[in-house]
Amino acid sequence: MTTEIIWHGHGSFQIQTAGHSLWMDPFLNDSPTATVTADTVAADTILISHAHFDHLTDALQIAQRTGAKVIANFEICNWLQGQGLPEGQLEAMNVGGQIEQPFGRVKMTLAHHSSSMPDGTYGGLASGYLLDLPAGHVYFAGDTALFLDMKLIGLVGLELAVLPIGDRFTMGPDDALEAVKLLNPKRVLPCHYNTWPPIAQDAASWAGHVRSQTAAEPVVVEPGETVRL
Predict the structure, then answer these.
(1) pLDDT in tens, 68-115
(2) For 189, how many CA atoms within 13 A lie in the half-sphere containing its CB?
(3) Which CATH code of 3.30.450.80, 3.40.50.80, 3.90.930.12, 3.60.15.10 fits the domain covering 4-215?
(4) What is the structure's pLDDT at 57?
């Protein structure tokens, strides 16, 4: 069964799988690179890696309009409920936990990053997500530094790993290359770069290093383009 993953710039992805439309970290209306807006997208599930504005901003609007379930850490779910989202639309998790969903299994993984709500309050632990989908395992690292336990995440066998390469606020190209070596995915997709000048990177150059130093196939796409598994 085909799974389609559409990059919408920065850390925002739409995952279409088994008749479901998932969104990872929707940041659309204020993004300089997104090709769609929050009032036009379809969603039945939204996954949020952490509470920073460039990952959380549009989740509430999309969830309220579509009725989508939101999967996030306990603190983010509490905050969204305080903003008026019904408890029945919220699926709280924490790092290391996993839940079954209609489209597959969701595991919340470790990420080394800060997290705070739009009002400045504590946003809980930042995370990534390991999705067990009909097309295989897909790992979204979220905003993170390099960490050695990526080796353990990769032991399940990854069809695709999605890694930030922007540097400054996440790992940069060099550490992302080391992450590929630890994760050993079949394919790897870079994200969280070229949104603003401070995180500008040459993804094609990075892809060349991945191709020459690992067994993974790098996949570099433009915002709005699709990767099929």
Answers:
(1) 999 999 999 999 999 999 999 999 999 999 999 999 999 999 999 999
(2) 28
(3) 3.60.15.10
(4) 87
